[in-house]
Amino acid sequence: MPAPDYSTGPYTARAPSVAQVSRLNDLCFAEYPGVIEGGEPFMRWYMARPGLDPRLCQAAWHGDGLVAGLFVTRLALHLGATPRPVGVIDTVMTHPEHRRRGLAGSLLSATIRAARELGLWALQLYTAPGSAGHRLYGSLGFRDRATLRYWTRAKTDPGDPARWRPCSLADEARVQDVVASHRSHDGVPEMDTAYWAWRRHDRPLELPAATWIRDLPGGPAETVALLPATMTALGRRTVCSDLMVRQEDSVESLCAALPASTSLVALADERDHLLITSLRKADFERGSAEVAMLMSLSSPGGAGADLPWFALTESVIGV
Ligand SMILES: CC(C)(COP(=O)(O)OP(=O)(O)OC[C@H]1O[C@@H](n2cnc3c(N)ncnc32)[C@H](O)[C@@H]1OP(=O)(O)O)[C@@H](O)C(=O)NCCC(=O)NCCS
């Protein structure tokens, strides 16, 4: 239990402003490598994320000051080929002057209780292995589900851009099908119209998204969303989100289709052999790790762990 001079509760009881969350976020995540440096326009967009549930999002207050918080977004994630109602937790943060007083633990415990009451199947989050957060989540019952890696490439080379092209609005329905039918991974969200629009169109000017597509004969297309952003520790990057490849030369060809100055960053599950081969072929370098953790709230057994994990970049990086 946190000390009595703190009050805690869900956003339904007391919701912080965008400015308050943005300030705390900037303070807490400046030292956390590989996340977006967003500021207020980013946070206004992020807090409008469809599925962000005020009954599950939590805040801790010291007087009028926001000192800790977390977000939870309800998404239908494919686990073991079945869509399950999952609460995706992110932006768990406590003001540096208020740490080690049980605030994050207390907010997470409240979220777990509320998620059970709402009948969610599981809770999911990402964190750096060995971090304070990793220990905290483990002590609350979250289990490691997959290890992801950041992969980076400083520059692209001229080469053969074989068939990659920016997607027109007319292609969008097809790209949505490619993403929706990506059943070789666990953790792919079902995206309704609102969630798709938030991810690709209703974005701040500072954080544009460009959808690319590559048609391949005899099967579904490949796709990626390219998201330029400034990231902690990595600087100015273009994040590859929803990177769905079917061939080993995919990423190499994608790089060749982009301006030479494009510095790419991608995330891949350590067991995602095709994607890793494709990144290596394109001279990407393997960087730091991030663990996808899962807490099953359903009957014993929970989610199987056979499939590689799909990295939801908005929850790991923020875009
Ligand atoms: C991670 C973070 C949210 C923890 O917040 P907190 O309010 O200090 O956490 P709590 O006081 O509830 O800690 C609960 C437990 O977590 C573990 N823990 C928290 N901080 C720790 C630290 N610096 N080192 C080791 N263990 C730590 C301990 O087990 C602790 O219990 P204890 O104090 O009884 O030993 C906070 O350190 C933070 O904001 N960090 C920067 C942002 C970040 O990394 N967020 C997580 C991203 S996934």
In percent, how much strand structure appears in the residues?
A: 25-35%
Report the end-to-end length measured between terminal Cα atoms.
33 Å
Separate helix tally: 9
| CATH architectural grouping of the largest domain | 3-Layer(aba) Sandwich
Radius of gyration: 19 Å
Give the averaged pLDDT, no decimals. Answer: 94
Q: Let me know the CATH homologous superfamily of the largest domain.
A: Gcn5-related N-acetyltransferase (GNAT)
Description:
A twelve-stranded mixed sheet has the order 1-2-3-4-5-12-6-11-10-9-8-7, sandwiched between helices. The protein contains nine helices and twelve strands. It has two domains: 7-148, Gcn5-related N-acetyltransferase (GNAT) (Aminopeptidase); 150-289, Gcn5-related N-acetyltransferase (GNAT) (Aminopeptidase, 3-Layer(aba) Sandwich). The longest helix has 15 residues, at 103-117. It has helices at 18-29, 39-46, 103-117, 132-140, 172-180, 193-200, 250-257, 273-281, 313-316, and strands at residues 7-10, 58-62, 65-79, 82-94, 122-127, 143-153, 164-166, 210-214, 222-231, 235-244, 264-269, 285-296. Helix 1 (18-29) crosses helix 2 (39-46). By secondary structure, it is α+β, with helices and mostly antiparallel strands. The chain is globular, with a radius of gyration of 19 Å. Coenzyme A binds at residues 28-29, 32, 68, 92-94, 99-105, 127, 131-133, 135-136, 139.
